[in-house]
Design brief:
single chain; 557 residues; FAD/NAD(P)-binding domain; seven-stranded mixed β-sheet; globular
């Protein structure tokens, strides 16, 4: 075992939280600080990664994981400042988003794709922005067809006759599914249609998702209640719901490569030689110089494929981390402080000095398992033929939504101009099992993703679903699908405390997460788990809080 010279800060994890921690330390604490970031994976960004394809002479860029900036008007000042410093301008989407791109090309609708594996036979019910959905031939029970059509076209106020306060009281103590079971008389096929409708957005199934937050966002089934967000946030909202309460921005904030743009911008700020490009626009098509990440003379060194195995104090003002990777011997790095910016469940294993309550909290915070995919298409004629740019698979326990590339024009990246040209689609799904607690359902999904054959099986499943749904439009999978790249995220969406949590569910309270974030001594914890706000701005904000704690000496041993 060898020991290297000291750093000022060591960060475990090169996702958005880890990159942000290094950014804030240099910006707010010590502009000359030497920082080491160690990352177990082969790329930086955590889930904020991207895929590139070359299809029939066209260069395509697609999100490989996290896709959008959710409600940026709700971002904390520290997050807004950091994004501005690294050149990420969220206002640009109001002009860069080509809102009518698909509508003007006859593909502005949404397709409800009933999978044969779920419903016994396949069927696509496509409907446009102003067209009612036709479920006459859908594989639903006769009684369910008008019910599902009403969910889509004419949302119902299941709590009609009650005041807003009375409605909120009923929502506060129920899941989405409980509201419909208690106040509506719906066919079981209707409940099955909704079972995974919230999964791709939150990781929770319809019977787990808190009704109060769903009503605020306007999720299907809870979008007709008529309670408008005004005044103070409703009592009982999650921390995220309260944050979003006055900030329901339109869903237009998405770069061509998703949140990889933010990760790349942060990394480039930390390592100036990382790209031969100066702007977000130019970086979209620039190659990363991976060799520049870990040069000995860098102010910030980022070591990929480097697994931190132990993090502890080596004195009152020093921490040390043991790192394995690259086939070399274990190296011990030392620094004045450290921030763990990794999934919370790994923190207890990494930091033995944490207290019993902190360790229990970390163990409770296993995330929701999700899968994401980038699909390279040689053309999108089948989508246009069916009049859709988006698909959803009702009742499917693995894949829930898919859509053609987001229509935004930035730099050299622009949406495919014609259905005859190559493009990409993205797909997303959450594997949390329904019918149980969120913790148990998430654990079951993670077990599935750990199987040796999981990636192959889930990729084949998506290919079959796309072929099945789009065949009526003329898609031939072997001809029209150039490539599919699936990412498995056993610890994907962070779990957050909700009004539906019951004793024994394994969901840590916001206060318990905050105590875990405090860490111990000169070691703090960052990431979406500890801030109870599972979005990109939560990761960045948690990093700022961790830096502030250490700089102000808030943590205690």
């Amino acid at each position: 075992m060898t020991t290297t010279p000291e750093f000022d800060l060591i960060v475990v994890g090169a996702g958005v939280a880890g990159l942000s921690a290094a950014f804030y330390w240099i910006t707010d604490v010590d502009r000359d600080a030497r920082v080491l970031i160690v990352e177990a994976g082969a790329q930086l960004g955590g889930p904020a990664i991207r895929h590139t394809f070359d299809v029939d002479g066209r260069r395509l860029v697609s999100p490989g994981g996290a896709q959008e900036l959710t409600f940026p008007s709700a971002f904390a000042p520290a997050v807004r400042s950091a994004l501005a410093t690294v050149g990420v301008d969220t206002d640009r989407f109001h002009t860069d988003t080509v809102a009518r791109h698909y509508t003007d090309r006859g593909a502005g609708g949404h397709g409800l794709a009933f999978a044969a594996s779920v419903w016994g036979r396949s069927h696509l019910a496509a409907h446009g922005p102003s067209d009612a959905v036709d479920l006459t031939d859908a594989p639903l029970a006769a009684r369910a067809r008008p019910q599902v059509a009403a969910l889509v076209d004419e949302p119902t106020d299941w709590l009609a006759g009650r005041t807003d306060d009375e409605k909120l009281a009923e929502l506060r103590r129920r899941s989405c599914d409980e509201v419909l079971r208690d106040f509506a008389e719906l066919d079981e096929d209707t409940h099955r249609f909704l079972r995974y409708s919230t999964s791709a957005q939150s990781g929770m199934t319809f019977d787990q998702h808190p009704a109060l937050d769903a009503a605020l966002i306007g999720y299907l089934g809870l979008d007709g209640l008529g309670v408008r967000p005004s005044g103070a946030p409703w009592d009982g909202l999650t921390r995220t719901g309260a944050r979003f309460f006055p900030h329901l921005d339109p869903p237009i904030y998405r770069f061509p490569d998703g949140n990889a743009t933010v990760a790349r911008a942060l990394a480039h700020h930390l390592v100036p030689d990382l790209f031969d490009a100066d702007t977000v626009d130019d970086r979209l098509t620039a190659e990363m110089s991976v060799d520049a990440l870990d040069r000995p003379d860098n102010q910030v060194r980022i070591r990929l494929n480097a697994t931190a195995t132990a993090l502890r104090h080596a004195g009152p003002d020093t921490v040390e981390v043991e790192v394995e990777g690259g086939g070399a011997a274990t190296i011990t790095y030392r620094a004045r402080a450290a921030i763990v910016a990794a999934p919370a469940h790994t923190t207890a294993l990494l930091v033995p000095e944490l207290g019993p309550e902190q360790r229990a909290t970390a163990a409770d915070l296993g995330r929701y398992p999700i899968v994401s995919a980038s699909v390279a298409l040689r053309n999108w004629r089948a989508w246009q033929s069916l009049g859709v740019s988006r698909l959803s698979w009702p009742g499917h326990p693995t894949w829930q939504i898919a859509g053609l590339e987001f229509p935004v024009a930035i730099g050299a990246c622009a949406p495919s101009p014609s259905p005859d040209e190559p493009t990409t689609a993205t797909a997303l799904g959450a594997l949390t099992e329904a019918g149980t607690t969120p913790a148990a359902g998430a654990a079951a999904g993670r077990r599935r993703l750990r199987a040796a054959t999981a990636r192959r099986e889930i990729t084949v499943e998506l290919r079959h679903l796309l072929a099945e749904a789009l065949a009526p439009g003329g898609l031939v999978a072997d001809r029209d699908i150039a490539d599919i790249r699936v990412e498995l995220w056993p610890h994907g969406y962070a779990r957050y405390a909700t009004s539906c949590d019951r004793p024994g569910d394994g969901s840590a309270t916001t206060d318990a997460r905050r105590r875990l974030a405090d860490g111990v001594g000169r070691i703090a914890v960052a990431g979406v788990d500890v801030i109870d706000h599972p979005f990109l701005d939560g990761a960045m904000e948690s990093a700022h809080l961790a830096v502030t704690r250490l700089a102000n000496g808030v943590t205690g041993r």
